[in-house]
DNA sequence: CATGAATGAGAATTCATTCAT
DNA sequence: CATGAATGAATTCTCATTCAT
């Protein structure tokens, strides 16, 4: 009994839904998008949608997981390519390849925050949030601690705490960016301040 | 001519609703609380509730406004009492009277963020968010700039940008505190890092 | 124990409510006006309003009754003044003093129809409707029959049936006038047709 | 790809709702019927009902549209069959196949009037009313004008105005029939008067 | 597997009427 | 008498989820 449809076909269909749903979530936010929105955007039937994702939460988590995978892949490549300096590595981790502050932010970030904040009383969601947090924390902390051991960074501050404060600040930026007009957040300038701070805190040589 | 009930009674009733609603919002968050929740908690009838607040948004904004008033009053008093050093003033503005990092956070903060983030596509809500942001920004910026002019703080960094980054970081803390278990946010430690950073950025003497 | 307030005062108050309510009913129609609308327009308190009229239906009926009284008074005067010809009498009864078709209609007529048609399943309302119908019928019929007896009108058609058809046609006009744009109803022209018809049916000499 | 249920099934279901709703509207009138009434009568769930009709207004308009279609079909057939005399055509248009006054009236007529009269301040409803009026007007006017051109009717009166007055009178009849007891309206007799009038106005030969 | 019709719990809001002061 | 706060029944509409075909 071979499956009626190929695995690729299923994968394609799923990918199409994920992509369409991402756009919908970006546009309407997590709470306000309905399964109907997704159905229409992905051109799937109700039943079809539920075949792949058993509810809105599941769908959103799938999007997050997919993106995490991509993110991890990027980081892995980063680690392979450029280890000239941990400082550069840290910057590219924070700001992407350009290693420079930009006035752009992941368009899904707002819905992301929304997802976790509206679900903060739900244990499942809390666990998921924590998992993701731990993951990100480890990522930053590893880089910083490696830099400290190599002597590139100072040991004055705990690497983990610096990592935490990076995440906190970026979360704050994402939040304000979601809520306020661009003129108010000054994404770029604030990012520069963050770099400035890190340079001081880590006593980066150069 | 003679009103049925005294003005105080009305105020009391309103206050009772506001208080009860605050607890409900703290417990369930903004999106998840329903007017029914509030009715039950405040022991008011449906109609009674709607007499005072014409919908959930209105009710929540009333709570925010009430709290802002209290906050402003506190700040005013602060300004009258202690102007020994702008550094102290800034700290008491950030952490309250104790001027010290604590592991406690305004319990309504989470719903607050939720309110603004789920309503980020609503113009009315955006305006409201911006208004509140501007208000807070001015508050911090004024203190910092006064400190700079007095020579207590360095001019190296723009006072306004520092003010912005304080807000961003605090927002990030509130967000993470809402979502993650206490052990992860390390409110107190991160607050200390913030102080450390400000000390560096403002080149506070002492 | 003399009453605390004079009877005139009460009458004035009542009249004020009736007048304001009339305007409100004209503007919003019967179903759509709320007691709140009336309260605001008449500048009375809720309780005050209910003191005079125990509900919306009662209020509306009071308005109708008041207007009927005025109408009856006018007719009485008509009868005293001008009995030169029953034809003239009939016309002034239908079109008012001018005895001529006009493009204007009692502004309350629409709410009137609405009142009776939405309440057509209510026995009380039906009775009231019938009462008013009988009254109007008698009015027209009396004039026509008197004209027939005087020889001014022909006996070919039953006076009562003509009276009925006058009412029916006027009701139809009121209805169409309420619903359709002025251009479509052609109130004046249709009224002229009615006269034309009556002239034929009654074989009016002149 | 394969739809769950046949198109016929959907049509049947829709038809069932329309039919049930028609009965409900006849019984309670437009304003007084609630979607719950319809749900119960049609044995549909709330969601099911809203799947087909997005609100009460939509539902009612659907009923009207369905009936208009039937009406148009009947007229078309009429036109094909009997063009012996325009007079007969006119009568069958007014009174149906029997061409004779009857003491019966479309049971939905009352709700129909109610629908338009309670919605007279709503632009959408007004447009709809006008559209329907224009349609009916053209229908009558066409017949009369054709009769005038053929010489069967006199040109003395404008065909369009006669058409208007027919509609006005029928509307009046429907109104009175909705509100008053049968004994008062005398539908049959008044219809005869209408015929009499038309015969005079059009100077019908025979 | 895919479809989309059907379900029904639940939330918001309105308003006539009552009644304590 | 007058006031207007309080009540709560009633209604509309939405949407996640199920399930027969």
Automatic annotation (TrEMBL), chains A, B, C, D:
**A Pfam family matched in the record:** TetR_C_17
Keyword DNA-binding, does the record have it? yes
**Tagged with keyword Transcription regulation:** yes
Give the lineage: Bacteria, Bacillati, Bacillota, Bacilli, Bacillales
Domain HTH tetR-type as annotated: residue spans: 11-71
What keywords is this UniProt entry annotated with?
DNA-binding, Transcription, Transcription regulation
Query: InterPro entries from the entry?
Result: DNA-bd_HTH_TetR-type_CS, Homeodomain-like_sf, HTH_TetR, Tet_transcr_reg_TetR-rel_C_sf, YfiR_C
Q: What's the protein here called? A: TetR/AcrR family transcriptional regulator
**Species:** Mesobacillus maritimus
- Where DNA binds (residue ranges)? 34-53
């Amino acid at each position: 009994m071979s499956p009626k449809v190929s695995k690729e076909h299923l994968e394609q269909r799923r990918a199409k839904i994920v992509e369409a749903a991402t756009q919908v979530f970006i546009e309407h936010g997590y709470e306000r998008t309905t399964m109907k929105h997704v159905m229409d955007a992905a051109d799937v039937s109700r039943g079809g949608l539920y075949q792949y994702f058993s509810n809105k939460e599941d769908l959103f988590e799938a999007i997050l997981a997919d993106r995490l995978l991509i993110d991890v892949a990027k980081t892995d490549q980063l680690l392979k390519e450029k280890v000239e300096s941990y400082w550069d590595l840290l910057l590219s981790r924070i700001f992407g390849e350009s290693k420079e502050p930009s006035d752009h932010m992941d368009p899904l970030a707002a819905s992301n925050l929304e997802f976790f904040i509206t679900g903060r009383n739900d244990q499942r969601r809390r666990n998921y949030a924590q998992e993701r947090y731990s993951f990100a924390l480890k990522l930053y902390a590893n880089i910083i601690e490696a830099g400290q051991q190599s002597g590139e960074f100072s040991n004055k501050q705990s690497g983990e705490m610096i990592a935490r404060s990076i995440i906190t600040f970026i979360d704050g930026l994402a939040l304000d960016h979601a809520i306020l007009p661009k003129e108010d957040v000054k994404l770029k300038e604030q990012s520069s301040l963050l770099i400035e701070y890190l340079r001081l805190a880590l006593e980066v040589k150069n």
